[in-house]
Write a structure and sequence with these properties.
By secondary structure, this protein is an alpha/beta fold. It has helices at 3-11, 31-34, 63-74, 81-98, 111-117, 121-126, 149-159, 164-173, 188-198; strands spanning 43-45, 55-60, 103-106, 136-138, 160-162, 177-184, 206-212. The structure holds zinc ion (ZN).
């Protein structure tokens, strides 16, 4: 990169994460894109996977929401976390009304993903909401490209385990767990996480996610 370009990048206000044109105002987005985030309140998504709990999401994985989620997750634009965290918080509030005393259990990143991104992106979104119990651990996950749905399911089941001491502590409180993920598609990951917690004696009545994909 030439010096002039490098300096421009350093000193100009960051561009909006969604349109990459207008300068970002607060929270990494320009005003127009911020207005493009879902604002009609969370909606219910019922994952195809039958063991996955019903999931409340902020909106479809589409448009501005998809852009923002990708920039946050893949490019580490952590200034976008407050906007995404706010959407998750609304989804959780809707669930918490029905499930008193619920705690948030984030789907953990694998160690490899955490190392690559420098942070655990779902857990980071949960932190400002509070009531977080990190009682799941991700095992290394081989690439799932080309796997059949059944193979994917089996792989997902093996990939998440409860952290025994933390899961036992949560089970002892009798509080239900609400799983948290960034995107829900088939629900295979949520089903695997729910199974791991349920076998530790924890009820998993619902999940929340930022977006519902295809
Ligand atoms: Zn924009």
């Amino acid at each position: 990169m030439r010096l002039a370009e490098a300096l421009t990048e350093l000193f100009l206000p960051a561009a909006c994460a969604a349109c990459r044109e207008a300068p970002a105002s607060g929270r990494g987005l320009c005003a127009a894109c911020a207005a493009g985030l879902p604002d009609r309140g969370p909606v219910l998504a019922v994952p195809r996977e039958r063991q996955a709990p019903p999931t409340v999401v902020a909106g479809a994985y589409d448009g501005v929401l998809a852009e923002v989620l990708n920039e946050y997750k893949e490019r580490g634009r952590r200034e976008l976390a407050p906007a995404l965290s706010g959407l998750l918080e609304e989804a959780f509030a809707a669930v918490a009304e029905q499930v008193p005393g619920a705690v948030l259990v984030p789907i953990p990143a694998t160690r490899a993903a955490r190392r690559e991104r420098g942070f655990d992106h779902v857990a980071a979104l949960c932190r400002p909401i509070g009531r977080v119990r990190r009682c799941l651990r991700a095992r290394p996950r081989p690439d799932s490209v080309g796997l059949s749905p059944e193979q994917r399911r089996r792989q997902a089941r093996r990939s998440l385990v409860a952290v025994p001491s933390r899961a036992a502590a949560l089970a002892a409180t009798g509080r239900p767990a609400v799983l948290v993920d960034d995107i829900v598609t088939t629900g295979a990951t949520l089903a695997a996480a729910a199974a791991a917690l349920r076998s530790a004696g924890i009820a998993v009545p619902a999940a929340v996610a930022v977006a519902a994909g295809q």
